[in-house]
Design brief:
Number of strands: 10
Number of helices: 2
Oligomer: single chain
Largest sheet: 10 strands, antiparallel
C-alpha cells in the first residue's frame, strides 16, 4: 500500500512539473501578442544634387507624429475637417537661405529668412502617403545647414481642442530636429520626400 501511495505521489509531482513546463512558453508569448496601439511613421529622404545632376549626398531619418498631427487625424476621422494642401518646411533655425521654388511670395534671390515653406505633391499607395518637394538653394553665404524639417497639412478650420483652443487651418503633422544638419551650397537641389505609414 505504501508503494502505491509513493508511486501516486511521484506521478503527481511529475505531472505538476510537466504542466509547469508546458505553461512557460505561453507566458513568454502573451506579452508579444499585446498591441502597442496604432503607430504613425515618417520616413524621410533628402537628396542633395549638384547643378550638373550628380548626387552629392543622401540623408535618411525618421520622425514622430506631433500632438497636433494626432488631433488632426482624429478630426479627419470625425469629419470635422478635411485636408486642403500639403507643405514641407525647411529651416536653418538661425542662418538665412532661400529656395527658388518658395511659395510665400518673397523674392528667392534675396534670402533673408531662416525658414522656407514649399508646396508638396502628395500621393497615396494603399496604406502609405508620400509627400515630395524640391528646393533649389539660394544663399549669400558659402553654404546653409538645414537643422529642422516639418511636414504641414493644411485643412479647413477646426478646433484641435474642442473645449478651449481657437480654430486653426494648418497643422505641423511631423517635425524633426536634425542632430546632423543637411549642408548644401548655392544652386544645389534638395529633393525632399517623406513616406507616412501606419501600423
Amino acid at each position: 500500500m505504501k508503494l502505491i501511495i509513493i508511486g501516486m505521489f511521484i506521478a503527481l509531482m511529475a505531472l505538476g512539473t510537466s504542466c509547469a513546463q508546458m505553461s512557460q512558453p505561453v507566458a513568454e508569448v502573451a506579452p508579444q501578442a499585446t498591441s502597442d496601439g496604432i503607430k504613425v511613421h515618417g520616413d524621410w529622404t533628402v537628396t542633395v544634387t549638384n547643378p550638373d545632376g550628380t548626387v552629392d549626398a543622401v540623408h535618411e531619418f525618421e520622425n514622430e507624429l506631433t500632438a497636433l498631427g494626432g488631433a488632426l487625424l482624429a478630426a479627419v476621422l470625425m469629419k470635422e475637417t478635411e485636408i486642403t494642401s500639403y507643405r514641407i518646411i525647411l529651416s536653418t533655425l538661425t542662418g538665412t537661405m532661400g529656395c527658388i521654388e518658395n511659395t510665400d511670395g518673397n523674392n528667392a534671390n534675396l534670402p533673408t529668412k531662416h525658414q522656407w515653406d514649399l508646396e508638396a505633391a502628395a500621393v497615396r499607395d494603399f496604406d502609405v502617403v508620400m509627400l515630395g518637394t524640391t528646393c533649389t538653394v539660394k544663399t549669400v553665404k558659402d553654404s546653409i545647414d538645414i537643422k529642422k524639417i516639418m511636414a504641414v497639412f493644411d485643412h479647413t478650420l477646426y478646433k484641435p481642442n474642442p473645449n478651449d483652443e481657437s480654430p486653426t487651418a494648418g497643422s505641423i503633422f511631423t517635425i524633426r530636429h536634425l542632430d546632423n544638419p543637411i549642408t548644401a551650397i548655392n544652386n544645389q537641389v534638395l529633393g525632399v520626400n517623406v513616406v507616412i505609414s501606419f501600423e
